[in-house]
TrEMBL record:
Coiled-coil region list: none
Protein name, per record: DUF1573 domain-containing protein
InterPro entries: DUF1573, Ig-like_fold
Name of a matching Pfam family: DUF1573
Length: 365
């Protein structure tokens, strides 16, 4: 009896391990898509239908064909490969989007159903659609030469040094001349590139400028503003200056929970400093203690204030584990009056809190 039970147990155990091994074998998708999410960028309403293509490869031994494609709304139409595909062969899904159907960010779902079991893949077409304005002067109040812009400055937002950031900026051609992409010129620093998107922008039409900001080439941190002259050769009075602002940050990859105690950790003893009432004729000094509470060397990459009236003195640029230092903050309020707030940003290699803020408040009499 015991022998029978042991044999039965061994059979069960063998079956269990075999099922476990099979469960660990990853399933190969029947279709491999080059991408399943496409961003077509900024689209102007008057540009008409926008098309994008999704490409796939069939990976199974069985013959494959697309049975149907389901669309989220009537704003998209689709064409797709009708042929029957063998293993290794490729196909395409061509999606057309009508930008008059959306305003702002859009994400349209496309579901592809195949003849093989389990083939029901989801694709996404994304972008930003900008409707044509009913009042041009009101929509583009910032006039620079023959161009109208929505805002005075172009804000790139947060830009990290692991990859360049791209932004599309619309403008309205208020002039009488054709703006040719080939004639566009921009005097940019190495870390900024500007190009015209459309080949031609006719008078009383809208165009797009593509701005590419590479923070790694800038090799700095904090807030920056660049004034970039652009023009179209052969077009009189077309020289304008673009004001581009950006906040530059160092990128840190996510860390595991086990690594939290091993990385540098910046601790600021006092993040809020209230000077209360001060005289505009008196220079004020305060000190703040910063400590490395981690187990690795802390490097202070940069300390930046938001005013030339503020000076920051740091005796060191690195702190060993457990080490502290005093930051000296010097505020010269001459010429200022009323409620005042100064921000001090500390950039470090603390991967959890790489940028920390000290706020200094006062009422200047």
């Amino acid at each position: 009896m015991n022998r029978f039970v042991s044999l039965l147990f061994l059979v069960f155990l063998s079956a269990f391990f075999q099922s476990g091994i099979l469960a660990q074998v990853p399933t190969v998708p029947k279709l491999i898509w080059k991408v399943n999410r496409l961003d077509i960028g900024t689209v102007l309403e008057e540009q008409g239908l926008q098309t994008a293509e999704f490409e796939f490869t069939h990976t199974q031994d069985s013959l494959f064909f697309i049975q149907d494609v389901w669309l989220e709304c009537g704003c998209t139409t689709v064409e797709y490969t009708k042929d029957t595909l063998s293993v290794g062969e490729s196909g395409k899904i061509k999606v057309s989007f009508d930008p008059t159907s959306a305003a702002g960010f859009f994400s349209k779902l496309i579901v592809v159903k195949g003849n093989l079991s389990g083939v029901q893949d989801s694709l996404y077409l994304e972008g930003i659609s900008i409707p044509y304005p009913s009042d041009v002067r009101r929509a583009y109040p910032e006039i620079k030469g023959p161009l109208g812009f929505r805002l005075k400055k172009i804000n790139m937002g947060d830009v990290f040094d692991n990859e360049p950031k791209i932004k599309y900026v619309e403008f309205f051609n208020l002039g009488d001349d054709l703006l040719d992409k080939g004639a566009f010129r921009a005097e940019t620093p190495p870390y900024i590139q500007i190009s015209q998107v459309q080949q031609f922008v006719r008078p009383q039409e809208r165009g797009l400028l593509m701005i590419r900001y590479d923070s790694k080439l800038k090799n700095d941190l904090g807030f920056f503003e660049d004034n970039i002259p652009v023009k179209w050769e052969g077009v009189a009075g077309s020289t304008v200056e673009l004001e581009i602002i950006a906040d530059l940050f160092e990128y840190f990859a996510p860390i595991s929970k086990a690594e939290l105690n091993e990385v540098p950790q910046l601790f600021i003893a006092q993040k809020q400093i209230d000077l209360r009432e001060i005289s505009s004729k008196t220079v004020v000094r305060r000190s703040v203690t910063v400590t490395n509470q981690g187990r690795s060397l802390l490097e202070i990459r940069k300390i930046q204030g938001n005013c030339e009236c503020l000076q920051i003195e740091a005796p060191k640029t690195s702190l060993a584990p457990g080490e502290s230092m005093e930051l000296t903050l010097i505020l010269d309020p001459i010429g200022r009056k009323g409620i005042d707030q100064r921000n001090i940003y500390i950039f470090s290699n603390d991967p959890v809190n790489p940028v920390q803020l000290i706020v200094m408040k006062s009422r200047i009499e």
